[in-house]
Amino acid sequence: EEEEEEEEVDFGDEEWQATAAEELFGEKAKAHKFTVQKVTKLGIYKGERAPWPPKDWPEDKPPPFDDVRTDKEGYGLHLSPKGDVYAGYFAANTRSGKGVMLYAKGGCYVGDWAEGKRHGAGKMSYLDGSVYEGAWAYGKRHGKGTLTYANGDRYVGQFFNGVKEGKGVYRAVAQGTKFDAEFLGGSILAGKAVGADGSTYYGTFKKGAADGKGAFALPNGIVAEGKFVGALPEDADPEDEETKLEYTWIGAGASTASTASDKVLLSRFAKARKPLKIVIAGPPAGGKGTQCEMIKDKFNCHHISTGDMLRSAAADEENEIGQQAKEKMEAGELVSDELICALLKQELEKPEAQNGWLLDGFPRTGGQVKAMEAMFIVPNKVILLEVPDEVLLQRVLGRRMDPETGKIYHMELNPVPEGEDKEAIEARLITREDDTEEKFKTRIEAFHKNVAALKEGFPGAKVLDGNRPADDVSADIALYLDA
């Protein structure tokens, strides 16, 4: 028999608050109306607070009429309106430092906090009996950790944004199988599976099942090579993404362990390419546009220009975040890093971005790097182009655009090619509004101001000399992305 779901209580409802006040205080309910409102909004806190008055409190301003005068600061105990209980340290009114949280819906976390979220090292016991101990970031399992499931299965390895991603070892207790592999999005991607009988399978996986070329190393020293071929069940709906393929093993040959070692088999069969997540940065007129076209075509990455993305989202009346950005732009205000990252999150969830993405024009500052990190928008390849300022200025002043096609030419470095329509194209070329010496100086100053923050935020970035023929730069980029 199914359990009936309890109705969620709206603690902010005035009628509910009035009823609660009557039940608690009877005839004195009116006098304690504010007490109920305060508890349902803020919860109950007992502990240390910041000194009174705050540094920015005006001398002629009277103190608040209630006892919540300053931020929670130091050690305290907090019962939230939802029923969660936290005992630990606070800073600037949020959970920060060491602390313990007992959740009303079940589960308990012991560990580090920052800005109100689980962040650092900690241990979480879940309602279903599973336990995670390891690194956290912005409220999610993130980094190295150990997850022990309620059924006894255990995963030790890397996590990303709450799920298994990176190198790790998963032990399935009931099957007696150990997966030593690379994981992506919570599922095994490529590696080896050691069975209870001592046999080992090397290969790639799809939705948790062996898929494609692989090899079995048997306990007797024989290595059987072949491939798993998947097909939809006869009665399956091909449009149903949840349908699992039925796999058949097709043998292709055999060898011995002496000629096919563990290292060789991993190299031959257990390599799977993870989707490229690329950020490209460079000064104005540094050649990013040319290289983005090459990367998009050669590596099948979804190209995201933040300028185009903002305009498209603002034009979409059903996009709530886009409309917020539109209000900012129409008011002449800067669109916040958080809003841009929220739009990026939407863009990265599109099907065309699942094979890889190329982010062009963002981030530009250290603050934007941190905003991306907080939303787990993390590139695995970063390209930074460098070109001398005097060369950039020459490129800018000689640059022209065809208003009909949007194609960019340069009067000396990339003129309109010979052809029947050459004269017509040259006649309609225009200089873009930003391609003036004055505008260039403003843009290059902003770039130089922030480039150090980009290098600090992405210490593994590939820095390339962009003052070379475009094909030479493309060749270096391709080698970097292929590595």
Explained architecture:
The structure is a single chain. The protein has 483 residues and is α+β, with helices and mostly antiparallel strands. The chain is built from twelve helices and 23 strands. The chain has a 16-stranded antiparallel beta sheet, with helices on both faces.
Indicate the topology.
Blueprint: H1 14-25, H2 33-42, E1 44-49, E2 72-79, E3 85-91, E4 94-102, E5 108-114, E6 117-125, E7 131-137, E8 140-148, E9 154-160, E10 163-172, E11 177-184, E12 187-194, E13 200-206, E14 209-217, E15 222-231, E16 246-256, H3 262-269, E17 276-281, H4 288-299, E18 302-305, H5 306-315, H6 320-330, H7 337-348, E19 356-360, H8 366-374, E20 381-386, H9 389-397, E21 399-401, E22 408-410, H10 422-428, H11 437-457, E23 462-465, H12 470-482
Parallel strand pairs: 17-19, 17-20, 18-19, 20-23
Antiparallel strand pairs: 1-2, 2-3, 3-4, 4-5, 5-6, 6-7, 7-8, 8-9, 9-10, 10-11, 11-12, 12-13, 13-14, 14-15, 15-16, 21-22
Helix pairs in contact: 1-2, 4-12, 5-6, 5-7, 6-7
Shape: flat
Strand order within the widest beta sheet:
1-2-3-4-5-6-7-8-9-10-11-12-13-14-15-16
What would you call the structural class? alpha+beta
- N-to-C CA distance: 56 Å
Mean pLDDT figure: 88
Helical content class: 25-40%
The number of helical segments is: 12
Give the strand tally. Answer: 23
